[in-house]
Sequence to fold (327 residues):
Amino acid sequence: MSNAALDTKRLGWVGTGRMGLPLAKRLLEAGCDVSVYNRTRSKAEPLAELGAKIVDSPGELADRDIVFTMVAGSTDFEAVVLGEDGLLSRPGVAPGIIVDSTTISAAVAASVRAVAAEHGTAILAAPVSGNPKVVKAGKLTFVVSGPSEAVEQSRPFLEVMAAGVTYVGEGDLARLVKICHNVMLGVVSQCMAEITVLAEKGGVPRSALLEFLNQSVMGSAFTRYKTPTFVHLDFNPTFTPPLLLKDLDLGLEAARESEVPMPVTAATAEVVSGMIGSGYREVDFGALLEVEAKAAGLELEPEDVFVSDGLSTDADAVAPLSDGAER
Fold:
């Protein structure tokens, strides 16, 4: 898309954490007009070098056409929108659209949407699939719900940040889709852990099993991305077990409300709950592999081989941790 097309809206951005910073950076690099607020101002300052205007409160973004929010949770989202100096705090001025990618409760989403409607502001739920490395590779995806007209106005900017933007309907449906996504994340990870331990206990190297799996019809972007974690036993956190359990529980809660049986999800939630009880908290959820191995009486060792993660540009290979490479 031409820079001229992206110049048609004045954008705001709230939240420059691990995900917010690289996403806002992509908008700025595309030539968008972006003003940025972050509670800790210093974390937003790197964006000033790319042309961002750093502001001191969310209220200073009230005159922006579209404001993107990506904050820690329900309380933070409610504060930046409805707070004393929030996006909707200034009489007679409010953003036309707020695009929120925060994981928030259904109750907070509904209350904020109701107040926003009184100000003429459309709220879009726009959860993402990916992490900072996926953002850097240009492979992040958005799932979006809300008024269709607001989605189409926001789409050019979402497409700058992501490889895919999927509209699923009105209201908060995108948040349900993200819960379904993360339920699958947990179930597939546990299945991956089980078959990897089964193969290794039978004498097959993890790298060999996963190479075959990734080249087969059963392979996916996710199995390829998680392969270095399993092969090198690199459990530096991208998504922790407590966060995964929260989403599994949300999935099970939605299933009960809709009378949808989800026995595999329930079993996975019990495994994740058990690993948290055993002390696996500030680690990557890929540590499900280690939990499974311990249950099977198998002692794991890192494999000193290069493997593909499906994202890297250097021949799609990730070095073992022994080489000191950053992940």
Remarks:
- The chain has twelve helices and nine strands.
- The radius of gyration is 21 Å.
- The first helix runs from residue 3 to 6.
- The CA atoms of residues 15 and 285 lie 24 Å apart.
